[in-house]
Specification:
- The chain has 204 residues and is mostly beta strands.
- It folds into 3 domains: 47 residues, no CATH class; 54 residues, Alpha-Beta Complex (Molybdopterin biosynthesis moea protein, domain 2), CATH 3.90.105; 72 residues, Beta Complex (Molybdopterin biosynthesis moeA protein, domain 3).
- The chain has 2 helices and 15 strands.
- Strands 1-13-2 form a 3-stranded antiparallel sheet, with no helix packed on it. Strands 7-5-8 form a 3-stranded antiparallel sheet, with no helix packed on it.
Length: 204
């Protein structure tokens, strides 16, 4: 146990003023501070984090989209299909689509390629499909003018919803020091700690 200074007062009562102690702590922590906010294009945002929430400028997807490779059909045309009695769809009644393609006008469902038997005069299906089958609706991932992420967020999330010039901070680890109560200096060298939510960092 440490000896008390003359007069019998505890050592912690003779600690430096709070401002001086805070300055010593800040120096030991390598001067923790908020990094400057800059506006950059998405291509230059790698290794940075958002400084403010990201809002969707457009819906994603912005149109009804095929969720599978196959054919887009009008579901009402498939009602008679049976496994024991496959239905032939003429070429004029379907459109070949890949995953992510916009759904053609007049089509409301997609039949996966694996369930199809192609013929020269069309395609055979062995089961009916309901409206919306294997179709991604408008705004399924994000709706326009909704908040898609709170700061910080990764570059890919910002770009996916139309943010082309998000405000970001450079990525930087935060450091802190362990101090005993009443001590004006850290008891050990600065150590890495988990970033706080407002200063989290992304990997390059």
């Amino acid at each position: 146990m440490s000896a008390s200074p003359p007069g019998g007062a505890p050592a912690e009562l003779h600690a430096p003023p709070p401002a001086e102690a805070l300055a010593a702590w800040a120096t030991a922590c390598d001067g923790p501070r908020l990094l400057p906010v800059v506006r950059v294009i998405v291509e230059d945002a790698l290794g940075r984090v958002t400084a403010e929430p990201v809002w969707a400028r457009r819906s994603s997807p912005a149109f009804p989209a095929a969720a599978m490779d196959g054919i887009a059909v009008a579901s009402q045309d498939t009602g008679a299909a049976r496994k024991a009695d496959p239905l032939r769809l003429a070429r004029a009644t379907f459109d070949v689509v890949d995953t992510g393609d916009p759904l053609p006008a007049g089509r409301d469902a997609v039949i996966p390629r694996e369930r199809l038997t192609f013929r020269d005069d069309g395609v055979l299906i062995d089961a009916p499909v309901a409206p919306g089958t294997h179709v991604r609706g408008i705004g399924e991932d994000a709706r326009r003018r909704t908040r898609r992420s709170s700061a910080p967020a990764r570059r890919s999330r910002s770009a996916r919803h139309g943010a082309t010039r998000p405000r970001r901070r450079p990525s930087s680890p935060r450091r802190s020091a362990r101090c005993w109560p009443g001590s004006s200096t850290p008891t050990s060298a600065p150590t890495r700690t988990r970033p706080s939510p407002s200063r989290a960092r992304t990997s390059a």
